[in-house]
Amino acid sequence: MSRPVPQPHPVAEHRANDPDLSIAGLRKVLGSQTVLDGIDLDVSAGQIITVLGPSGSGKTTLLRLICGFERADAGVIRLSGRLLADGRKTHMPPERRGVGYVAQEGALFPHLDVRRNIEFGLSRRQRATTDVEDLLAAVGLPASYANRAPSALSGGEQQRVALARALAPGPHLVLLDEPFSSLDAGLRVETRNAVAKRLRDAGATAILVTHDQDEALSMGDKVAVMHNGRLAQVASPRTLYDRPANLDIARFIGEAVLVPGITAGDTVDCCFGRLQLTTQVPRPGVGDRRDVNVLIRPEQFRLCVDHAADNQTIGSDAFPSTACVEQILFYGHDARIQLRLRDGQPFTATVPGFDLPAIGQTVSFRVAGNVYTYPY
Ligand SMILES: Nc1ncnc2c1ncn2[C@@H]1O[C@H](COP(=O)(O)OP(=O)(O)O)[C@@H](O)[C@H]1O
Ligand SMILES: [Mg+2]
């Protein structure tokens, strides 16, 4: 007769090198839809993870499960070794989780001033030790704002107050759901820099949800790409951009120029000539000759624009290829140029916004840096 297998104690000892937040096999069904399916995610203490995904991919649902506003259908969530959720068996109530949450919208209580908003939900003892002015300063707001009504603040200022409120109880983990999406471009960058600095200063572990790639790449120590309720890739911003796990992610993150090629050793031959492969990670098949899709980013194309001596440098070693300029979109800081090779292959180059070619001009160019490939 076999003996019963000993069951692990639900609250395991938390070891120093364990992840601060650990999510395994998380699943959530809403109505007839599996909104989250098999989510695995580890976050180290003090890390900021950004979750990037299109609208409807399940980002908000993930945050609501972590903070306890929703119950999981399956999967385990641990925070600093404490079991927050285990399928339908265990569900720690939100107020005991030590998780700060900045919701997507409607963050502040309109009838309470800024101070009362920040102090809302704190125990009497916490309130006595909470320095509202210090929290305001940390999110880049003057102390005098403490007595203002939320209606007397701009959208960006309200978001900062919402963050200060989430940070007030000193949470283990801070969750931010698209906190900057309602702000206009300039304020968005300023506010997210202030928020990132505050999170880092506080040593907080944080998950920031966004559908903005710039935000995800610039704020995250790691970026988790969410698609249809699944995490398609979790990687550093650099890795995600340089070596997307598949073609769908390559097209989703940034812009991708994809052309057929044939590998030859650590290079690949394609319509742009012989290009160097990204070699940090040995990949099966590198070294063989094989058909691949080559991923090139638009900013890798370096154009030689010579207005005075048109076409003189064409075919030079420095700029071995030529293409015809079909369209230019000027953004000030940079420009997107639509080009076409003589064989008909169209591609996009992103170049600095000065010294642009003319439409119809033939320019010479080269591909800078290494390229990544996918099996054809
Ligand atoms: N209460 C609900 N009942 C049924 N479906 C829901 C509910 N809440 C969200 N959903 C669905 O779950 C999916 C993910 O929603 P959500 O987590 O809000 O995505 P995101 O934040 O990435 O936009 C969407 O398709 C949405 O329609
Ligand atoms: Mg959402």
Write a concise keyword list for the protein shown above.
single chain; 376 residues; alpha+beta; Rossmann fold; 2 domains; five-stranded antiparallel sheet; 20% helix; 34% strand; binds adenosine-5'-diphosphate; binds magnesium ion
Please characterize this protein's 3D structure.
This protein is an alpha+beta fold. It has two domains: 222 residues, Rossmann fold (3-Layer(aba) Sandwich); 67 residues, OB fold (Dihydrolipoamide Acetyltransferase, E2P). It is 20% helix and 34% strand. A six-stranded mixed beta sheet has the order 7-8-9-3-10-11, sandwiched between helices. A five-stranded antiparallel beta sheet has the order 2-1-4-5-6, with helices on one face. It has a five-stranded antiparallel beta sheet with strand order 14-13-12-15-21, with no helix packed on it. Helix 4 crosses helix 5. The longest helix has 17 residues. The protein is globular. The protein starts with 20 loop residues before the first strand and ends with a strand. About 3% of the residues have low confidence. The structure holds adenosine-5'-diphosphate and magnesium ion.
